[in-house]
Design goal:
This protein is about 70% helix and about 0% strand. The radius of gyration is 22 Å and the shape is globular. The two termini are about 25 Å apart. The protein has one domain: Mitochondrial carrier domain (Mitochondrial carrier fold, Alpha/alpha barrel), CATH 1.50.40. By secondary structure, it is an all-alpha fold. It is a multi-pass membrane protein. Its main location: mitochondrion.
Length: about 350
């Protein structure tokens, strides 16, 4: 819209943008900018979407959350084999040094058949809905506190980062036991657990309630670099593209959104991955014989001394490999569900 790049929109720029834009009216343009930029790639996206009071009253919020949940379910299911391989590499550390992508997947199939590649996926999908709902409600409350007495208007990027991080931490605190169950079910051998309830009972009986919050501290600390870098890089890339190449359109296009999401997610993962690895090991360590029961700092020292710095990034290859297919599936399903549910129309 700002063709001359002077950070001011004059009447001619406003008129031309409105006349030649493919959307029917300015409300649709604003709506697109607000609600077409957050994609579920199977990770813990921590900055929820923003909605006006009118949109909340109309029920748009919940339709948007349903569309996002469906997109996340398809995305996570489609990339579940890579996610399971990542967890194996993270937990078994130096013992997995000879394992590559194909040998790891082949070993899982030999142990439990093709269906074993999706172990832990059911609870990973089930936790999308409560996590998204809690995160959104917490975000709205925190946003209200940050704004104070100021009504309306979107938060700045820095404020969104703070609100999103706190909302993500709140959601993770409540649903974290499901994260522990997901890790244990992902690592289980054939016949070890009969289901989610049996896994929860065995953990409670053998390890107590505290086991459901093992790894909570590194998990919460990891939200900050992931949320901050992911959001900052995404917004920077998207806005730079719009200003340079899309002066007459509010829609940067599927490939651009896909590219921005992929790059920003990769940067966020690089920063937070060591904490995610330590979290996963702490979640799993009690179920693996011979593994030392260490704290967050103890895990860090153990990995550095036994595996070196590369040990902090073990399993990151399958993690990166799943980003593009996850974003692609999520985007396609999300856009389809928005049409089905009447979001944006």
């Amino acid at each position: 819209m700002d063709r001359d790049g002077n950070l001011t929109i004059d009447w001619n720029e406003w008129r031309d943008h409105f006349l030649f834009n493919t959307f029917h009216n300015m409300e649709e343009i604003v709506h697109h900018w607000k609600h077409s930029h957050m994609l579920d790639i199977g990770e813990q996206l921590t900055v929820p979407d923003e909605f006006s009071e009118r949109e909340r009253r109309s029920g748009l919020v919940w339709r948007q959350l349903v569309a996002g949940a469906m997109a996340g379910a398809v995305s996570r299911t489609g990339t579940a084999p890579l996610d399971r391989l990542k967890v194996f590499l993270q937990v078994h550390g130096s013992a997995s040094r000879g394992m590559n992508l194909w040998s790891g997947l082949r070993g899982m199939v030999q142990e439990g058949g093709v269906s074993s590649l999706w172990r832990g996926n059911a609870i990973n999908v089930l936790k999308i809905a409560p996590e998204s709902a809690i995160k959104f409600m917490a975000y709205e409350q925190i946003k209200w506190v940050i704004r104070g007495n100021k009504d309306g208007g979107s938060l700045r990027v820095r404020e969104r980062f703070i609100a999103g991080s706190l909302a993500g931490a709140t959601a993770q605190t409540i649903i974290y036991p499901m994260e522990v169950l997901k890790t244990r079910l992902t690592l289980r051998t054939t016949g070890q657990y009969s289901g989610v309830a049996d896994c929860a009972r065995q953990i409670l009986r053998r390890e107590g309630v505290r086991a459901f919050y093992r790894g909570y501290l590194p998990n919460t600390l990891g939200i900050i670099p992931y949320a901050g870098i992911d959001l900052a890089v995404y917004e920077t890339l998207k806005n730079a593209w719009l200003q340079r190449y899309c002066v007459d359109s509010a829609d940067p296009g599927v490939l651009v959104l896909l590219g921005c999401g992929t790059i920003s997610s990769t940067c966020g993962q690089l920063a937070s991955y060591p904490l995610a690895l330590i979290r996963t090991r702490m979640q799993a360590q009690a179920s693996i014989e011979g593994k030392p029961k260490l704290t967050m700092v103890g895990q860090f020292k153990y990995i550095i001394s036994h595996e070196g710095v590369p040990g902090l990034y073990r399993g990151i290859t399958p993690n990166f490999l799943k980003v593009i297919p996850a974003v692609s599936m999520s985007y396609v399903v999300y856009e389809h569900m928005k049409k089905v549910l009447g979001v944006g129309h």
